[in-house]
């Protein structure tokens, strides 16, 4: 009996569907079905009760599969410990990344990670849409915002302040806002997710008492909105208006002087960056090393931004 077949069977049990399990593993349904049949033949009993519309665990499957899962977990733990002890990190990283962060910041970091660990391979899925671990061919995702689904497992990488920014040329032509309310006189550049345009910008006045900070909301006007974070950044760098963006996404342009931060006495949103996955069992030594590497790289970027006073005052 092959371990790979048992892993497929556990996925089928998780999804209650051979097709869904095959999709999550990037396999054909026929391949997954054949794996289930091989395991059942080797055991001498059926793990699933099948009908035309649904698939559920048999009584034998309910008894067997939890023990099978524990056994596979022990094998994985033993392999992971051996890899760590021997400093041999291998395996495939199937990671989901957002457009701007993934292309312009994280991909060079991943390139360096692969050079350091040549037995690790990478499959990158870049999209600003929400990751669906049951649909998309990924095992982990680097995403802004803490996971809202209690079934997900993750590592917090860091807190990321947003910056309000524009090019020096744009500000020279149109003036530099000194208060968030003055932003309404400017052209906003907006991120759009499905039908929602993020044109309501919120701020906290850092000059007010910490316990009761003044909160300011500004409904922006603008002639550009896009569902791709990288596109919004490019519009900003091209001088088409003012944007609110993650300081990590904009770090290279801020450090190069392509854009400059404004309203630094006012705090825009702060988001968390998380590395998430659908199951604790998927956390491999490679993923743990990647987590540590991402934390270190982010800290280096924020140190550079802070040294040049490019982050909002805390």
Radius of gyration: 24 Å
From the N-terminal CA to the C-terminal CA, the straight-line distance is 58 Å
Structural category: alpha+beta
Please tell me the CATH architecture of the largest domain by its name. Answer: 3-Layer(aba) Sandwich
The major pleated sheet works out as: 7 strands, mixed
CATH topology of the largest domain: D-Maltodextrin-Binding Protein, domain 2
How many runs of DSSP E, i.e. beta strands?
A: 15
Give helix % range: 40-55%
CATH domain class name of the largest domain: Alpha Beta
Strand content: 25-35%
- Poorly predicted sequence stretches spanning 5 or more consecutive residues: none
Shape: elongated
The domain tally reads: 2
Number of helices: 9
Provide the succession of SSEs. Answer: HHHEEHEHEEEHEEEEEHEHEEEH
The average pLDDT is 89
Keywords summarizing the entry:
alpha+beta, Arc Repressor Mutant, subunit A, 3-stranded mixed sheet, 2 domains, 9 helices
Report what the structure shows.
The chain is an alpha+beta fold. Helix content is 40%, strand content 26%. The strands form four sheets. Strands 3, 4, 5, 6, 12, 13 and 15 form a seven-stranded mixed beta sheet that branches. Strands 8-7-11 form a three-stranded mixed beta sheet. It starts with a helix and ends in a 7-residue tail after the last helix. The relative contact order is 0.14.
Task: Summarize the structure in short.
The protein is 40% helix and 26% strand.
Mind sketching the topology for me?
Layout: H1 3-15, H2 18-24, H3 29-43, E1 48-50, E2 55-57, H4 59-86, E3 91-97, H5 99-116, E4 120-126, E5 140-144, E6 153-166, H6 168-174, E7 187-193, E8 196-197, E9 200-205, E10 215-219, E11 221-226, H7 229-237, E12 243-246, H8 251-256, E13 260-262, E14 266-267, E15 270-277, H9 285-307
Parallel strand pairs: 3-4, 3-5, 7-11
Antiparallel strand pairs: 1-2, 5-15, 6-12, 6-13, 6-15, 7-8, 9-10, 9-14
Helix pairs in contact: 1-2, 1-3, 1-4, 2-3, 5-7, 5-9
